[in-house]
What does this fold into?
Amino acid sequence: MHLQLQSCPARLSDDSATLCQLQVTPPLPYCAHHYREYCTLQEKARAAGREGDTVKELVNRRAADGLDTYTTLREIETAKEVAELYRGALDRQLEVGNELRVRFVCANATEAQDELEARRDGATELIRKLADRERVLGMEEKARSAAIELRSILSVPHKPFSCEQSAIVSASPERQCPTIKLTSERCTLMASAGQRLCMMHAVTHASISVIVRAMWKTMEVSRTDVARIGNGQDSVDNAKTVKGYICKVNDVVEELQRHQKTYSCRGEPTAPAIHDALVGDLRKRMVAAMLVLGELKGSQEYHLALRQGHVEVWASENLASVIKEGSAGLCAVFGGPVTIGAFVGGAALWARHAAGKNKSV
Ligand SMILES: [Zn+2]
Ligand SMILES: [Zn+2]
Ligand SMILES: [Zn+2]
It folds into this structure.
């Protein structure tokens, strides 16, 4: 019986071929130092394996479900975290396995390596897909909150309408009244001293404002009705309310523009900015109301536009048809084009028209 001397076969490092060569004490395969290191690595590999196993089922099940089942950012973030945990565990297992294979020449580590690599590649691919889905959902959520933000304008009362453009600031001697009469001709009367309009049109200008204010009030009542409608409350009545509001706002916009044109109110230095701000605000509200309508009807086209952040384009494109539908009867609060034409002609004309209308009713 003779004692066989055996040297430790462990490599000193990954990238060196130098072996330890210290004497080993059988049955241990390595020297005491390297045996301890070997055991530590084995334990590390097992720990990483256990960690991977706890999330493996979860990751596989969710991957099999398909990523479209995730509808919130929170869900997708959680799924991504779990998949990253899984990949991290596989990474550690691979790393340790590699060290065992290279430095400690373990055959069983080599076998497991290929399978682990395949699983890690799968996890990496899943994480990439989850990140894509996360980005899409993030954009959708941003677009949705922008739409909600836009809709919130409907909870704010309309800015009051005012047109103080009958008096004149500049001290020019005498001017012709700029009013365009019903006959499409310009008024031939001269404006009174310190006035922009002739006496008659100074009166009709003020009266028209009364009419616009009345339209404004109806519109405001309608706005509060629309503001009360919540998401997902689909009903024919709600859709009617929203459409009615849109038409009322549109009527006011048209009336404002007609007013500006008739009395050249935009000609004064401060007027254009004020008028444009008013009209701009009203247009924004029409778009916001279209979003409420889109939510109510829930069409595929609307939701696609919402997801892609094109909801304002969708609203603008569909606004015309709502207004057209409305002018065919839904929002004939002020009797349609004939009555509105009468507004332009002056309060007296309007009163006569209204009286005639009442008689015929
Ligand atoms: Zn050694
Ligand atoms: Zn005016
Ligand atoms: Zn005039």
About this structure: Residues 8, 10, 20, 22, 30-31, 33-34 surround zinc ion (ligand 1) (CB under 6 Å).
